[in-house]
């Protein structure tokens, strides 16, 4: 079976959305904390994996995994909605840890993924 570029993005998106949902459910059961650990883990692992794809992937891999899977897997909108909830509830410290940790670790992991992908 062959897929056009649109099919690769759609296929990757399907699996990315399923992975995001599954890890989100698992994380909410596993981590009973104010910090939205599941979303943070998803976005940080997505940063690392996208770094690998950016360095090592060709066109098809970039579309399937980078655009499709990672586009559906990572979630900037949920991240921002959770930040608003933390802010409105007055959880200033948790808010600061979540924002700073997500951005700083996200960039570090994307860089690490890119370095690893360059070796492949």
UniProtKB/TrEMBL annotation:
Keyword annotations of the record: Cell membrane, Ion channel, Ion transport, Membrane, Metal-binding, Sodium, Transmembrane, Transmembrane helix, Transport
Topology class, membrane: Multi-pass membrane protein
Family matches, as Pfam families: CRCB
Transmembrane segments: 6-23, 35-55, 61-79, 91-114
Role played: Fluoride-specific ion channel. Important for reducing fluoride concentration in the cell, thus reducing its toxicity.
Top-rank lineage group of the source organism: Bacteria
GO cellular component, one term: plasma membrane
Regulation: Na(+) is not transported, but it plays an essential structural role and its presence is essential for fluoride channel function.
Protein known as: Fluoride-specific ion channel FluC
GO BP annotations listed: cellular detoxification of fluoride
Family affiliation: Belongs to the fluoride channel Fluc/FEX (TC 1.A.43) family.
Catalyzed reaction equations: fluoride(in) = fluoride(out)
Subcellular location field: Cell membrane
InterPro entries: FluC
GO MF, one annotated term: metal ion binding
Binding site for Na(+): 71, 74
């Amino acid at each position: 079976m062959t897929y056009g570029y649109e099919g690769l993005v759609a296929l990757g998106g399907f699996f990315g959305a399923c992975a995001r949902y599954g890890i989100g459910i698992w994380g909410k059961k596993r981590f009973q904390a104010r910090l939205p650990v599941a979303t943070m883990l998803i976005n940080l692992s997505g940063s690392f994996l996208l770094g690998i794809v950016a360095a090592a992937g060709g066109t098809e891999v970039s579309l399937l995994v980078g655009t499709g899977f990672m586009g559906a897997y990572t979630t900037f909108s949920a991240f921002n909605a959770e930040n608003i909830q933390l802010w409105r509830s007055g959880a200033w410290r948790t808010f600061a840890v979540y924002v700073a940790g997500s951005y700083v670790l996200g960039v570090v992991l994307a860089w690490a993924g890119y370095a690893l992908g360059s070796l492949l």
